[in-house]
Write a structure and sequence with these properties.
Strand content: under 5%
Distance between the termini: 44 Å
Radius of gyration: 27 Å
Largest sheet: 2 strands, antiparallel
Low-confidence stretches: none
Number of strands: 2
Shape: elongated
Order of helices and strands: HHHHHHHEE
């Protein structure tokens, strides 16, 4: 875990240093874009800043989150108001904004190449522009896949909560409290994540009053002692 964390910080450091260098180099060449009919240089600089903002949101959330919270982008339910605000900013603000900004940049680049190709930046800046466009669309596809997985986890959580709520009778509430409030996708066992429980099956299990004479005084699920006269459900062989 320590090695993975160190590698993650190194990758983030390389990303931030690279974007800082690209931004500084673009500012030094600002005058070279003055004749361009579209503000491609401003679009490129804003894209760099948005990428930094997105990565900073993930890094900050990782610092605030508990180890058992899971991957930040997959968990739409955060444990604190700060983390929830960062998550909402990531998915509802910066991600749609960067997507629309990338599409706008593509339109501008095509228009310049079609109407005034001589005004396109040359040399290294031209290739940086093309590579950045490719990377932006790869990012869009990656975040799109992560977003669909996160939404699918959220739907399974909501379905599981509905089924767990149907199981919450007085006995369940007395023993375990309100079990239908799930914190995140990692709260689901693997079997429940794939298929939700059916409350009707539990309702079909015979219910009877516990008798201490039978000699079975411990619940095999919660490992607590059963009281005489307590309502229990017993599975038959």
């Amino acid at each position: 875990m320590a090695g993975s964390a160190a590698e993650g910080w190194q990758a983030d450091a390389v990303l931030f240093l690279s974007l800082t260098w690209l931004s500084f180099d673009l500012c030094l060449s600002w005058d070279a874009f003055e004749g361009c009919p579209k503000p491609i240089h401003k679009w490129l600089l804003a894209s760099y800043l948005m990428m930094v903002a997105m990565r900073l949101a993930c890094v900050l959330s990782a610092r605030l989150a508990a180890p058992q919270a899971g991957y930040f982008l997959l968990n739409l339910r955060q444990s604190s108001a700060k983390q929830q605000a960062i998550m909402n900013f990531t998915w509802l603000v910066i991600t749609p904004l960067f997507t629309l900004w990338t599409l706008l940049g593509t339109v501008w680049i095509v228009q310049v190449m079609w109407q005034a190709p001589q005004q396109m930046p040359s040399g290294m800046h031209f290739w940086i522009l093309i590579v950045w466009q490719v990377m932006s669309y790869l990012w869009f596809c990656m975040y799109g896949c992560v977003g669909m997985v996160a939404w699918r986890f959220e739907q399974r959580l909501r379905t599981a909560e509905v089924d767990l709520r149907a199981l919450e009778d007085g006995d369940v509430l007395a023993r375990w409290g309100r079990v239908s409030n799930l914190e995140g996708y990692r709260s689901l066992p693997a079997t429940m994540a794939a298929c939700h429980p059916q409350p009707s099956r539990r309702a079909g299990i015979p219910q009877q009053l516990h008798d201490n004479i039978a000699g079975n005084d411990d619940c095999p699920i919660c490992l607590e002692g059963l009281q005489e006269g307590e309502s229990v459900r017993e599975l038959t062989a």
